[in-house]
């Protein structure tokens, strides 16, 4: 039985990532309107910068520290992290098995508060 496009599972999603030894590994898997869902699993360091849309990370595996606008907080599997558009953020000191879902949505500049 074929998996429907609206059902994403971690193992097959991670298998779509490019095999690179360091840096950014990211793949979009689902898009609908302004919403985009992807999987992100950087290696060695997280090179990303601020994004133009609001986003949510849902940690699949691994642990580390999440830095947002200068604040540092530990993360673990199943944590959900919200990042408003334009916020400086990155993952640091993460384990080798770190992977996360990434959800982007809304207008450039983010949703109004």
What would your notes on this structure say?
The protein is mainly beta and 113 residues long. The chain contains one helix and eight strands.
Task: Kindly list the characteristics that best describe this protein.
single chain; Cupin_2; 8 strands; 113 residues; 5-stranded antiparallel beta sheet; Jelly Rolls
Summarize the structure.
This protein has 113 residues and is mainly beta.
> Based on the structure given, which CATH architecture is correct?
Sandwich
Trace the largest sheet across and list its strands: 1-2-8-3-6
Q: Which class in CATH terms? A: Mainly Beta
What are the low-pLDDT stretches, counting only 5+ consecutive residues below 50?
none
Q: How much of the sequence is in beta strands?
A: 35-45%
Helix % is under 10%
Give the CA-based shape.
Answer: globular
Intertermini distance: 43 Å
Which sequence of SSEs, written as H and E, runs from N to C? Answer: HEEEEEEEE
Give Rg in angstroms. 14 Å
InterPro entries: Cupin_2, RmlC-like_jellyroll, RmlC_Cupin_sf
Domain Cupin type-2: 39-101
Protein name: Cupin domain
């Amino acid at each position: 039985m074929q998996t429907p496009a609206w059902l994403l599972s971690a193992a097959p999603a991670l298998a779509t990532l490019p095999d690179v030894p360091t840096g950014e590994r990211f793949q979009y898997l689902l898009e609908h309107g302004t919403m985009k869902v992807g999987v992100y699993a950087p290696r060695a360091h997280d090179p990303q910068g601020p994004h133009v849309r609001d986003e949510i990370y849902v940690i699949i595996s691994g642990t580390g520290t999440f830095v947002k606008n200068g604040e540092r907080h530990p993360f673990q599997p199943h944590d959900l992290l919200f990042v408003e558009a334009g916020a400086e953020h990155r993952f640091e000191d993460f384990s080798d098995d770190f992977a996360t879902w990434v959800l982007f949505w809304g207008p450039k500049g983010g949703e109004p508060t």
